[in-house]
Design goal:
12 strands; 360 residues; four-stranded mixed β-sheet
């Protein structure tokens, strides 16, 4: 049995904490005092108990520790998991910098290049502990808290792309992570993994091009079934091609959106893969234009890709256009608030310098 820490008490965090507990690991949950008093978190704090059902298995997990003390949560933990949105990474990087221990692995699920945010934050704070950063391309669980103390996993995501920082320590990290999740697909490094976080390609065209439908639908908009038409799919192909050009310039193996959807089959077009797909057909899209499909995928996905394109001289006109349109929709300046190269600590690097920074 190994000790791990799980940050947060939302859908993914509770699913992960319950699943790992039921697998025999000692789990600590950390939540901020601000959110610990919320209805769903308070039950877990009071009872240290989570009922898990669905595709990750069924059972009642008695969690070892639930706390608002970050030092208590991470003390002695082999791995610190963050199944959290990208906008939380800056906060947790600053918080964990003061309490991490030698040999710990910090895993962002998903990362969206957040591992680079952590590396820079730790360097800026003068952290001397030998800590390894790791990120995945997507969440391990598609889960929802249905009532306090009860989380249901609708789907369990296997064979998830995963990158390690520094890249030279990848093998030892994967060996450790196999104790918890044995299905990771190794990436060349965290940048390769971040460029394969495909949510911006899967979400942004269908959401922005259906903004009016989302506003009028009152929660009854089905993103893939009605939002991804042949024309929208054509736009997705172009967006994915711009991302693919970045991947190729950096020398990584490319998995296209169509390849991801094909799940090992010979890929067809995005439209052919989406149209009539049973696993996508009944997935509802955003209920508002303030949904994370907009507020996360634009500033923390598209902005990073666009900045990389400028640095590497790879044109990204469609990505740039969606950022500009999206900035109006979400009423933000994503090029200021989002995941820029400066915030990730890689601004102005040559390709060789970038590879060295990533730990090759």
């Amino acid at each position: 049995m190994a000790k791990v820490a799980v940050m947060g008490s939302g859908n993914g965090s509770q699913a992960m904490a319950a699943d790992l507990t039921l697998k025999g690991h000692e789990v600590s949950i950390y939540e901020t005092a601000e959110f610990a008093s919320g209805t769903n978190a308070k039950y877990v704090f009071d009872h240290k108990q989570i009922r898990l059902e669905g595709r990750a298995g069924d059972g009642i997990a008695q969690v070892a520790c639930v706390t608002t003390d970050i030092a208590e949560a991470v003390k002695g933990a082999e791995v610190i998991f963050l199944p959290l949105p990208a906008f939380s990474h800056d906060y947790y990087a600053a918080l964990l910098a003061d309490v991490v221990e030698n040999g710990q692995i910090i895993v962002l699920t998903p990362g969206n290049l957040g591992s680079l945010i952590f590396k820079k934050a730790f360097a800026d704070k003068g952290v001397t502990a030998d800590v390894i950063f790791c990120e995945t391309a997507t969440l391990n669980y598609d889960a929802r808290i249905l009532e306090p103390g009860y989380v249901y996993v609708y789907d369990r995501n296997y064979e998830i792309k995963c990158g390690v920082l520094p890249a030279g320590k990848s093998q030892e990290v994967y060996k450790t992570l196999e104790k918890y999740y044995g299905e990771f697909i190794p990436c060349e490094d965290v940048l390769a993994c971040g460029l394969h976080s495909l949510n911006p390609c899967l979400h942004i065209p269908g959401c922005i091009m259906n903004a009016g439908r989302i506003e009028r639908s009152k929660g009854n908009f089905y993103l893939y079934e009605e939002g991804i038409t042949p024309t929208v799919a054509d736009v997705m192909e172009v967006l994915d091609a711009e991302r693919g050009a970045l991947v190729k310039v950096l020398g990584y193996d490319l998995m296209t959106v169509a390849m991801e959807l094909a799940e090992g089959r010979e890929p067809r077009t995005i439209w052919e893969e989406v149209n009539g797909c049973k696993t996508l057909e009944f997935i509802k899209g955003p209920t508002s234009l303030r949904n994370r499909y907009f507020t996360e995928d634009i500033p923390y996905g598209l902005v990073a890709w666009s900045d990389l394109g400028k640095m590497l001289n790879v044109p990204t006109p469609l990505i740039d256009a969606f950022i500009e349109i999206g900035s109006i929709i979400i009423d933000q300046k994503p090029r200021e608030t989002g995941r820029t190269l400066a915030k990730m600590g890689i601004e102005g690097m040559s390709l060789d310098e970038l590879k060295k920074y990533l730990g090759h």
